[in-house]
Amino acid sequence: MAKARSNFVCQSCGAVSTRWQGRCEACGEWNSIVEESGAQAGFGPPAARGGRGKAFALETLAGDAQPAPRIATGIEEFDRVTGGGFVPGSVALLGGEPGIGKSTLLIQACAALANRGERVIYISGEEAAAQVRLRAERLGLAKSPVELAGATQVEDILATCAAGRRPALIVIDSIQTMHTDAVESAPGTVTQVRASAQALLRHAKLGGSTVILVGHVTKDGQVAGPRVVEHMVDAVLSFEGDSAHHFRMLRASKNRFGATGEIGVFEMTGAGLAEVPNPSALFLAGRDAEAPGAAVLAGMEGQRPMLVEIQALVAPTSLGTPRRAVVGFDSNRLSMILAVLEAHAGLRLGQHDVYLNVAGGLRADEPAADLAAAAALVSSLTGAALPAERVYFGEIALSGAVRPVIHAGARLKEAGKLGFRRAVLPQAQQTTDDDKSAGVALAACGHVAALVAEIAQSSAESPAGRRDGARRAPARGPSGD
C-alpha cells in the first residue's frame, strides 16, 4: 500500500505547498504552515479519491431570481445585521472577545425563535448544560423550548440534529472545541477546526438548517484559527464592545445575503442585552454643549447614520516633543489633519499637546470625520464653543480642500431627527431637494481655512475670547489670504 503523501497547509489562508517553509508565500504569515497527511486533508490524485468524476448540467445567467427566504428572530437589531433574518441553509461565524456577551446574545436569539414554534438546538462545547441553564434563568428565558446539550463530537451532533423535525437554527459554541473522527489530530488544531466546520457546513446546505459557529478571537481582534473558515461561511459577524461601557455592537464584515458593514447596537443590562433603536441619542446623551473642543459628527456605520461627539483638547506642552494621543480615531489621520491645519490654516500646533477622543467608545474610521475632528481641534485651541445645534461631516484633502462624502442625505435626516438645525458640509457636496427637506440648514465649507476663520471670529466676539485672547495661540490666515 502506497504511503499517504503529506501536504503543508497554511493555517491563515489555507494555501497548500509540498514542503515546509517558515513563511507562507500566499499571505506572508510566518510560522503558520502545518503538516497534514493527504488522506486527512482530502488531497491527492483523482484515482485515490474515487476515480473519474461525473459531468453535471450547466445553467445560464437568465432566469427568475427569487429573494432568499428569511427566518426573522424578532430582535430587530440582530435581524438588521443579518439582512432581515436567517437564511435557511446558511452558515454564520460569530466572533468576539471573551465575556463580551456572545453566548447571551445567542441564547436570546434562540429563545426568540423557539418561542415562535421553531426547533432550535444549542450545542455548548465549552460550558456544561447546567451552566447554560443558569444563564437562561438569569435572563428569564428558562421556559423557552430551546433544546440544549453539551457535546463536542461532530458526528454525534449531526446525528442528533438529523433526528426528528428539522431544526431552524443550530448554534455551535464554539467551533474550536469541536472534533471529528475524519481526521487524526487534537481538538482546536487547524485540521480539526477546518474539518469540523466543513462537516457542519455540509449538513446546513443539505438539511436546510441555519448554523451559527462561535469563534474565539486573537489579540488583534481576528477570529482565531484558519482564515479558510471565514471563506467557507456565508456571513462573518463580530460582537464588539468596551468593558468600560454598557453598549455592544454587532457588526457584519461579510454577508452573502445582506449588506456588509451593517451594525446593530445593544446595551448590556441586568436582564441581558437590550436593543438600542436610537443609538445616536445614546451616544450624545449627557454631552456638554457649551464646552469648547467638542464637535458632533454626522457619521455612518455601514448603512446606518450615527451621530457621535468628537472631543479634542489642545494644551501647551512642557515636553520637547508634543504628545499626540487618540482614542477611537486613526492616529495617522490625526497627524495629517494637524499638518493641514498648520500648512493651510496658519495654526501653530507644534508646541501643543493634542488629545482626541470619540465619546462613547466608538471608532470614527471614515474620512467624513475629518471636518468634525478639525472643528473640535480649532475650538479647543481658540477656546470658542461650537454651536450646540450644528453637525459636521466632510473629508479634508492634503491641499486643505474639503471633499464630498457619500450618504449625505441619510446623515442630514438623522441630524434633523435629533434636533440639529445646521450642518457644515463640503461645498462640492451634491444634495437633493429631499435632503434639504430634513429641516437642517446647509452651510457649505470649501476649505479648511474658512472653517478656522469662522471659529476664530466667534472666539474673538465672545467675552471669554477677548479676555483670554492674549494667552491663546492666534490663528493666522493662510499665506496669500
Automatic annotation (TrEMBL):
Superkingdom per UniProt: Bacteria
Keyword ATP-binding attributed: yes
Every RecA family profile domain range: 67-217
Functional note: Plays a role in repairing double-strand DNA breaks, probably involving stabilizing or processing branched DNA or blocked replication forks.
PROSITE patterns: RECA_2
Residues covered by region (Disordered): 458-481
UniProt keyword annotations, A-Z: ATP-binding, DNA damage, DNA repair, DNA-binding, Hydrolase, Metal-binding, Nucleotide-binding, Stress response, Zinc, Zinc-finger
Region (Lon-protease-like): 353-481
GO molecular function: ATP binding; ATP-dependent DNA damage sensor activity; damaged DNA binding; hydrolase activity; zinc ion binding
Domain remark text: The middle region has homology to RecA with ATPase motifs including the RadA KNRFG motif, while the C-terminus is homologous to Lon protease.
Family: Belongs to the RecA family. RadA subfamily.
Gene3D superfamilies attached to this UniProt entry: 3.30.230.10, P-loop containing nucleotide triphosphate hydrolases
Residue window of motif RadA KNRFG motif: 254-258
Binding site for ATP: G96, E97, P98, G99, I100, G101, K102, S103
InterPro entries on file: AAA+_ATPase, DNA_repair_RadA, P-loop_NTPase, RecA_ATP-bd, Ribosomal_Su5_D2-typ_SF, Ribsml_uS5_D2-typ_fold_subgr, Rubredoxin_2
Organism listed in the record: Methylosinus trichosporium (strain ATCC 35070 / NCIMB 11131 / UNIQEM 75 / OB3b)
Protein's name in the database: DNA repair protein RadA
Pfam family, one: AAA_25
Cross-referenced NCBIfam families: sms (TIGR00416)
Gene: radA
Listed GO biological process terms: recombinational repair
Protein's UniProt keywords contain Transit peptide: no
One GO CC annotation: cytosol
